[in-house]
Amino acid sequence: MKAYFKSFAAFRTTGSADVLSADICLDSSDGQASTVTVVGEYARSHTGQWLIYGNRLYLIDKTTPQDGRTLFTLVEPIETFSRKLLYEAPLIPVTIGSFVRDQIVSNWIQQEDRVYALPYLTVSTLDTSPFVTPDVDANGLFSLTEYIRTMRRMADLRITFTVDRDSLLCLITHGVRTPRNVVFGDGHSQLSTAAYSKSGLAKLTVIQPVDSGKLDAEGEAIMVNQSTDYYLAANGSVSSQIPGVRASGEWDTFFVGAKQDALQKATEKFAKNSASHKVEFYSDRDFQVYDPCSIKLYGEVLTSYISYKGIRSGDDRWLYKSGELATRASEKMKGVLK
Predict the structure, then answer these.
(1) What is the pTM of this model?
(2) Domain check: are 125 and 233 in the same one?
(3) Which of 92, 146, 198, 298 shows the smallest number of beta carbons within 10 Å?
(4) CA dist., res. 75 & res. 56, Å (int)
(5) What are phi and psi of 62, to 5 degrees?
């Protein structure tokens, strides 16, 4: 199989190479990298250019020449939009999709500095999700790449890139998450590795400054801290009401800003519970990242979501991951992991 190179400046095909091996991330919740090893030694000038492999587009993040071969480390196209931007509130009502589209158009497609411009890119949106303000730093800056990832997790925003000769098309849509049941040994799914850490969070106390309705001597609003408890239900839902069937785990406390959505921030923190385990498995079934999944493993059922989807050389099945740890399943069986 071949990999094709395209220039970042003009999106013209500049060459091709025979692929020796590949470990490809098709999608992930945290932007995991891919690697492709090709025949021949290539200069570092390929870094920052585009690479097409298996009809999918990647940005070359690192070039490592070796003896008669080159290892390319690849990242997904949205990494192109990682430059910090000054947030300016939209003057007219927008959706999440239209906000992302407008940022790409003004900051990359119509960019005056041609070194960083993407004039060959066309972006359109079908997303109608209500707009969510991006998190900004102390200087009012935000990363569009991180905003896209956050909206993927919160609102199931989907972005698809399609190559059309010397043009690049970007479509923004709203996805649908399909619950999945993963059963090993059913002829479809095969466990590769598994690991566990301590329990995740089950209750959060969120402290947020709110307006007391009173003014100080200088006429400024007096803010007071307000505490709200949020609970994680066994089915994965989050609420300030105690659920009928609660998830098991720890109780933690954290602060949010006065203008932040407390429920949103609690939901994001609960979502990181998937880091309390890692399950890697192969399957011939087509799942999507963020699909909720129930995985029966060692006599218990893990409730999580698909966090990674990829392929590896020599195997025509998909490789899936749920969680962020990395310990062999055999260690669990030996009692190493408690």
Answers:
(1) 0.74
(2) no
(3) 92
(4) 11
(5) -155, 140
